[in-house]
Write a structure and sequence with these properties.
By secondary structure, the protein is mainly beta. The chain contains 4 helices and 14 strands.
Length: 213
């Protein structure tokens, strides 16, 4: 993965690590920091799969609640992303993944983020990794940090990936393996089929990743 240093002016963030409550609807925070450093993000997102669902769908009245989302992080910095919206609707992306040190001039501090794609000023995600393997990605929008992709990291791609996104690259082309037991396009149901070999890296969790100057 490439390591970039960006100088922008959002003026946000303070430490907040939270475990999402799926029944309470979409959450937001005024300030939020990743709990993994830039260097350790390179170790965490390396030949692994993020399996989860979109935080925006956390509504008990939403029929597509917990619709599956899958992102493959290649060891070479490449990525492939599948977002299953509803029956016969999907999006497949192959954004460039960057490890970014964000410089907040107003707050006089820097902090690590994960960036999807090369569009200026967009695609940034704060990363919260938990000792049990749960990993959430959070996006900044209209002055708040929102739950974006919630779930966990695992070693293999779910078999449901190609049900959700038929044009997703083949496992062979990615150098990945497949968990044949995970066939549901609903994240919660998929976990009951097989929890997968979770990536648990408590050694990479850092209490405060912010550097003030």
């Amino acid at each position: 993965m490439k390591r970039l240093v960006k100088t922008l002016t959002l003026g946000l963030l303070a430490v907040a690590i939270a475990t999402p409550s799926y029944a309470e609807g979409r959450k937001r925070w005024k300030k939020l920091y990743s709990n993994v450093t830039q260097e350790d993000m390179g170790k965490l997102f390396n030949g692994v799969v993020h399996v989860g669902f979109g935080g925006a769908s956390q509504k008990n009245t939403d029929p597509n609640q917990f619709a599956l989302g899958v992102t493959w992080f290649g060891k070479d910095g490449s990525s492939s992303e599948c977002i299953f919206k509803s029956d016969k609707k999907w999006d497949t992306f192959s954004p460039e993944i960057s490890l970014v040190t964000y410089n907040s001039k107003r707050r006089k501090e820097t902090y690590p983020l994960l960036k999807f794609g090369d569009i200026k000023g967009s695609g940034y995600r704060a990363v919260i990794h938990s000792p049990n393997g749960s990993t959430g990605l959070y996006m900044h929008w209209k002055g708040y940090w929102w739950e974006s992709e919630l779930g966990h990291l695992q070693a293999r791609l779910p078999a449901a990936t190609w049900t959700a996104c038929p044009d997703f690259p083949s496992a062979a082309s990615l150098g990945a393996k497949v968990n044949q037991k995970q066939i549901s396009t609903n994240y919660m149901e998929l976990l009951t089929q097989d929890k997968g070999k979770r990536i648990k890296r408590p050694d990479l969790i850092t209490k405060n990743t912010v550097v003030k100057y």
